[in-house]
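INTERNAL AUDIT FORM
Audit reference: QA-55
Scope: verify that the stored structure record matches its stored sequence.
Auditor: D.O.
Record contents follow.
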Amino acid sequence: MSDAVQDGGVPLSDTQRRVRRSPLLFTTPLVLLGILLLILFWESIRANMTGDARAEWPWRLQLVDMEALGSLLAVAAGAVLARAQYARTVRPYLGWRAAWARGDLRGDVQAWRVGILNGGQHIAAIESWECRVVLRGSGESVDAGWVDIDEAVTGLTAAGLVVAEDFQLVKFGQGFPLVGTGSYETVLVGAFSKRFVEDVDSLYVRVRVTDVVGDSHERIGDCMKGARAVTQAPLD
């Protein structure tokens, strides 16, 4: 991966990261736990005051019985821990695989075929799918922003590359399921000819998915990564 940067100067990274947690299933239990801890703090202060002091306002205010509060705290803490453990269990593991192969471009020519898979145990639904194209010699310009597949194809054809002959990019709609699999079977992201590999320095794909607990995960991959390696040279 090259040292390109995202908007705002953040380096492009091929590492999967969690970008958002579910407000309902993550924030709500934490807020509840925080409220109960504040109540525990209040009741602890009241318990250490004299009887006369507890007869005065606001110390005479008893929010929850200590025995009931202990049970509520145990339930809330258990919910937070259980949610965290379950989120790790259902977390998607987005991976990429690429190799030179035939059958995806016109004329049955050799093409650099890139695929994506979800190595987790559960379905992850695509939330967004964006591209960033950097043509050879243009440098990692901040003008090469994130666009959808249609805009990326428009830019590539304007550069003289031909759809189905030089490249093929698959468009994924919002909600498309990446099914968890125990195998290495991938879903096609795109196929690129030798000319495409020579003319395009980088083609980044940024995929964001939502898992079954509502958390969002993101990974950025460079489709051109490895295409020019000697060990990956296409067979004539």
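Auditor finding: record pair retrieved intact. The helical segments are 23-47, 51-54, 66-89, 149-158, 194-199.
Action required: none
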